[in-house]
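Reviewer has doubts. Consider these tokens.
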Amino acid sequence: MKKLLLFAAIIAINACNPDRSMTTETVKGYRPIYMSYANLRNVSSGSPQKLRKAGKIYIKDKYLYINEIGQGIHVFDNSDKTKPQAIAFISIPANQDISIADNILYADNGDDLVTIDISNPLAVKVVKRIEKAFPYPSHPKQNGKFECVDPSEGYVIGWEYTDLVNPKCFR
């Protein structure tokens, strides 16, 4: 009888315990993928790359600019409109959107807004950076459980769907 009362007391205490840190819950959810701010802010011209996930397209003078979602901008010489020639890739990590006015390309670079001089698309120059111009991504687009974002880890460039242990955040 004493064992039964002891067992019932233990169950009652654990049922009322708001701190469930003694239990482990493994669920499917989203884990943030981080990039360091030093790597994120590295905007540069390089050799052409394969077009994979196209975004906006701009034509400026004899050049065609195609946004590569999350990566940067493809630059094509469009002198012969029947055969555009890839000439460069402007790496802008975490880039989603662009706009061009005169010789300035405006782009989001994570949570920053950068203005880039594209007078020479083979050697671009960052003219100005406005830090924290856009909201920091605090959750995945999908609903469900996820690891809480820790901005000290860097900038969230994506989310991976995986097993999580005791996730604290959900949406």
Remarks:
- The first helix runs from residue 2 to 16.
- The first strand starts at residue 26 and ends at 35.
- Confidence is low (pLDDT under 50) at residues 8-17.
